[in-house]
Amino acid sequence: MSGPLAPRVVALGGGHGLSQALAAWRRITTELTAVVTVADDGGSSGRIRREMPVLPPGDLRMALAALAGPAARHQELAVLLQHRLGGWGALAGHPVGNLLLTGLMEVHGGDTCRALDVLGELVGACGRVLPMAEVPLDLVARVESVDPDDPRRSRTIRGQVAIASTPGRVRDIRVEPADPAVAPEVTDAIAAADVVTLGPGSWYTSVLPHLLVPQLHAALAATSARVVVVLNLVPQAGETDGFSPEQHLEVLSAHLDGVAVHAVVADEHSVVDRRGLLSAVRGYGAELILAPVAEPDGAPRHDPARLAAALAAVAGAR
User: Fold this and answer.
1) Of 170, 159, 186, 167, nearest in space to 45 by CA
2) Residue 32 lies in a domain
3) Cα(111)–Cα(54) distance, integer angstroms
4) 313 pLDDT exceeds 80?
5) Are 205 and 36 in contact (CB under 8 A)?
6) Among 10, 21, 157, 230, which has the minimal tally of Cβ within 10 Å of its Cβ?
7) Are residues 16 and 151 located together in one domain of the fold?
8) Is residue 33 part of a domain?
């Protein structure tokens, strides 16, 4: 949808969760901006950020692929962006899109926003992709052991991959550097938005980091947009083991500090305690949207068409 009825939307997140949100939002509007985490330190992105002074490209690439235009040539390019090189040499395992985006960042003197816009034009992106910060971020978490006999009940874990793979429950998380530069395009998009969404995605490593960057947090606190939280369908191993939807919101609430939440979207079949979730959501002064947003085959993924229907209701779009 475009024109006067199209809501201006900013979707915050990273990885597969953000891709699912973008696949839904693109059915509703073309006035769409993805603001993407830049803390990935694993796989191809980790190799690139260790070897070159650029942002980790992986989550940015995935967002661009999710927004690729419907034309055959654009979809073919999206497939190419996601294609991982084979073999056993230095390039093995790198997605082509990571290398393209890294090259464009170099060509444009480290201007990641310009590089993303150029690649976005090539794939006919139905929206814009921007990084949440202008420098690579490191995540640092305090993880509590689940073993009662562990003499070190709490450990400080550094790095997105290490946090996600360390057994135990994450108790708190921070970003380094603590106050990174944020592109003005990002804060301008949040200020102009009608709707801002947080989630779905890895709660501690893709969703919460946006609230930990001071400039982003200030922009979210000041925006007049409706802020919508999309809850995950299931807890994530290594990050939110055993978390109920209410506990996800409790963790999020501890980081809001002036950021209003207007609506929470949850899958009606994934919620065990509806009354408890409704009470928690109302406690934040928000509206609970319970809808069938998961894949109909039972897979723990959001269905783009179903999620779009729920988001359209929240955004007041047709």
Assistant:
1) 159
2) no
3) 9
4) yes
5) no
6) 157
7) no
8) no
CA distances from 129 to 35, 65, 73, 94, 207 (A): 6, 10, 20, 20, 16
Q: Is the pLDDT of residue 28 over 80?
A: yes
Cα(263)–Cα(287) distance, integer angstroms: 4
Q: What are phi and psi of 94, to 5 degrees?
A: -75, 125
Instruction: State the residue for tokens 């490209």.
Output: 57
Taken as a whole, the chain contains a residue count of 318
60-104 pLDDT, tens per residue?
999 999 999 999 999 999 999 999 999 999 999 999 999 999 999
Q: What is the rounded (10 degree) CA torsion for 102, 107, 112, 118?
A: -100
State the Cα–Cα distance between residues 309 and 230, nearest whole angstrom: 13
Tens-place pLDDT, residues 265-293: 999 988 889 999 999 999 889 999 999 99
Residues 144 and 127 placed together within one structural domain of the fold: no
Check residue 165 and give its pLDDT.
81
**Eight-state DSSP code of residue 257:** T
Residue 205: domain span: 1-27+179-318
Between strands 154-158 and 169-176, the pairing is unpaired
10 Å Cβ neighbour count for 167? 12
305 & 275 share domain: yes
- Alpha carbon distances (Å) from 55 to 47, 61, 119, 171, 222: 11, 11, 15, 27, 27
CA–CA dist 288, 296 (Å, integer): 21
SS3 category, 298: coil
